[in-house]
Amino acid sequence: MGTIVCQACNSTIDHFEDEKVTVLYSSKCTCCNEHHSKEEK
Q1: For residue 9, what pLDDT is reported?
Q2: Rounded Cα gap, residues 18 and 31, in angstroms
Q3: 17-37 per-position pLDDT tens digit
Q4: d(CA 27, CA 41)
Q5: What whole-number distance in Å separates Cα of residue 19 and Cα of residue 27?
Q6: pTM, whole model, 2 decimals?
Q7: Beta bridge partners of 16
C-alpha cells in the first residue's frame, strides 16, 4: 500500500497498490490550488 501526500500541506492525495508501504510526495494538490487562488483574489 502506498500513499501520495502533498508536499506543501501534508494532506493525503491518493492511495496506490504497492508491495511495500511507500510514501510519495507530490508538489500539487487540489486543496493547495484552491488556497492559493483564494489568496490571489
Answers
A1: 85
A2: 25
A3: 988 889 988 886 766 655 544
A4: 22
A5: 24
A6: 0.60
A7: 2
